[in-house]
Design goal:
By secondary structure, this protein is mainly α. The chain has two domains: 52 residues, no CATH class; 115 residues, no CATH class. Helix content is 53%, strand content 5%. The chain contains nine helices and two strands; from the N terminus they run ααααααααββα. A two-stranded antiparallel ribbon has the order 1-2. A hairpin with a 6-residue loop joins strand 1 and strand 2. Helix 1 packs parallel to helix 6. The longest helix is centred in the N-terminal third of the chain and has 21 residues. The chain is elongated and about 50 Å long. The termini are far apart. The protein binds zinc ion. Zinc ion (ZN) binds next to helix 9.
């Protein structure tokens, strides 16, 4: 074994894998600042370069990322979709209590997009794309890790729901979104 068997070559393999992931995530719409927080071996300038390759002639979105899940979930439907997205992620993620699993993030968003198209209970409602995107999924995964978002089962209807600890106690979102949507005549 050469001295650097665990050093140089291992590191560059990681770097190659991270570059591939970065490209997938950029294509899926994850913001550069979010990707940068998840990868250790890809620099920001490199991410910008990949971004311009994936979206020629465009510039990466400017502005700050939302502060957390609680600030992007605004309607009962957002909340129902949040539960769906987070559960897709948790079903795939390895040790989501210990880290954000970046590969699972990409795979979960892929399956969210495939799956949702065929769901009648969501198809006839207005999905807000400002919420339903991979950046919100990243916030959910990050806040789940930080224990700011919990995934639980509604005691009334049995559906999976999320709860953000930063939600105002009087917020209508404290209520199970599935029960709320059903009442609204879904
Ligand atoms: Zn319910």
């Amino acid at each position: 074994m050469s001295k650097d068997a665990n050093g140089g070559s291992h590191k560059s393999l990681l770097s190659i894998r991270e570059h591939e992931l970065a490209r997938d995530l950029i294509r899926q719409g994850l913001r550069i600042a979010a990707i940068q927080s998840l990868l250790q071996h890809v620099y920001r300038t490199e991410l910008s370069r990949i971004w311009r390759e994936v979206f020629p002639g465009e510039s990466p979105p400017a502005g700050r990322l939302p502060s957390g899940s609680a600030s992007v979930i605004k309607t009962p439907l957002d909340s129902a979709l949040a539960a769906f997205m987070l559960n897709e992620y948790l079903a795939i993620a390895v040790e989501p209590d210990l880290r954000v699993d970046i590969e699972a993030l990409s795979a979960a968003w892929e399956s969210c997009q495939d799956f949702l198209g065929g769901r009648n209970d969501y198809a006839n409602r207005e999905i807000r794309l400002e919420f339903y995107n991979i950046n919100s999924l990243w916030l959910l995964a990050r806040d789940y890790l930080a224990q700011k978002v919990q995934s639980e089962r509604c005691q009334n209807c049995g559906s999976r729901r999320v709860r953000c600890i930063d939600w105002d106690i009087r917020s209508k979102l404290q209520r199970c979104p599935h029960c709320t949507l059903r009442e609204m005549g879904g």
